[in-house]
DNA sequence: TTAAACTAGTTAGCATGCTAAGTAACTAGG
DNA sequence: CCTAGTTACTTAGCATGCTAACTAGTTTAA
């Protein structure tokens, strides 16, 4: 396990700047790799989550899974629908909500996407052990909880 | 050291989705905490980097330190200047470049900002050991390198 | 049963990142 | 010394996140 003090300082500099930069780079790497499929970051991310949540998911559930707000999702969903990758059907039990399904063409695209992502994932995680990845993932979850607590702390104070 | 397999899977789901979400949350926590100072995320981040790089830094150097592109910085710099937090002076040795300095008012704001950030940082890093933070920071640096290699791989291929 | 409150989704408009393309100043080769 | 290329910065416009405020169904409670 290589552990170098300077890295910790790098992270400290802007607190979350490193994370943002790495996030953008990883996202760009995937987006570039899937470019032949005509997908942008928000669109391929949504497709992967729809797949994991199973078809028939509502926009609310999808937004929650993606960790974004509903209005952010609306735009992406509209684009996926225009590209005929998904269709939405109004839920007969609750006419407010719309359930999402892949089209046949969408399913084909999803397969291609998953193949490419598997390859990119391997490249992005290169040189990192499972233990390191777990520590990072654990740290992210912990920081997420900390940040949420911190946000309610400062919102409540006003 | 707590290491839980499910977390790794969480990270895997959208590859970099967790990182983006945690990044946004941490950023929002700081931005909320410094809200009384009238600063947005891009502005406080830039201020911290200017401080670390020492005054008289050029926009080019600052953009590089922030890990963003010049046009993204232009907007932020303009706002900081309008708020009279910084001033820019054309470099007499190279009239293309502009050096950045804090105003007196800007320095006062910087002090207040740094105090608040120190507190928020403590909260965001709560429950995480130095070793865990180092592993995360190391992982981020490694992933950044991987992502850059991946990006040139896919750009070169076209 | 009907008015009030809630919930799913949308629209409008802001913040911040980006790329592409333009301007002005510097540098290098003939 | 002048043209060609490079560099620092700006402008314009796109992508994706957000909040606030709206519409239209659903639920709750008097």
Number of strands of chain A: 3
Provide the spatial order of strands within the biggest beta sheet of chain A: 1-3-2
> Any idea of the CATH class of chain A?
Mainly Alpha
- The number of helices of chain A is 7
The CATH architecture of chain A can be given as Orthogonal Bundle
Oligomer: homodimer
Given as residue ranges, the uncertain stretches of chain A (5+ residues, pLDDT < 50) are 1-6
End-to-end CA span of chain A: 44 Å
Coarse shape of chain A: globular
- The radius of gyration over CA of chain A amounts to 19 Å
Largest interface: which pair? A-B, 69 and 69 residues
* Helix amount of chain A: 55-70%
Structural class of chain A: mainly alpha
Proportion of strand residues of chain A: 5-15%
Topology pattern of chain A, helix = H, strand = E: HHHEHHEEHH
Classified in CATH, the superfamily of chain A is Winged helix-like DNA-binding domain superfamily/Winged helix DNA-binding domain
Question: What is the number of independent domains of chain A?
Answer: 1
């Amino acid at each position: 396990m290589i552990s170098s003090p300077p890295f910790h300082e790098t992270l400290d500099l802007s607190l979350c700047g490193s994370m943002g930069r790495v996030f953008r780079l990883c996202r760009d790497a995937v987006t570039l790799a899937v470019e032949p499929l005509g997908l942008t970051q928000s669109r391929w991310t949504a497709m992967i989550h729809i797949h994991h949540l199973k078809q028939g998911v509502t926009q609310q559930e999808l937004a929650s899974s993606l960790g974004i707000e509903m209005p952010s999702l609306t735009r992406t969903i509209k684009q996926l629908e225009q590209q005929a990758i998904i269709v939405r059907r109004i839920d007969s039990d609750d006419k407010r909500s719309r359930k999402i399904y892949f089209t046949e063409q969408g399913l084909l695209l999803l397969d291609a996407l998953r193949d490419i992502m598997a390859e990119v994932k391997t490249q992005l995680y290169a040189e990192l052990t499972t233990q390191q990845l777990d520590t990072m993932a654990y740290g992210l979850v912990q920081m997420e909880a900390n940040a949420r607590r911190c946000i309610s702390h400062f919102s409540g104070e006003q």
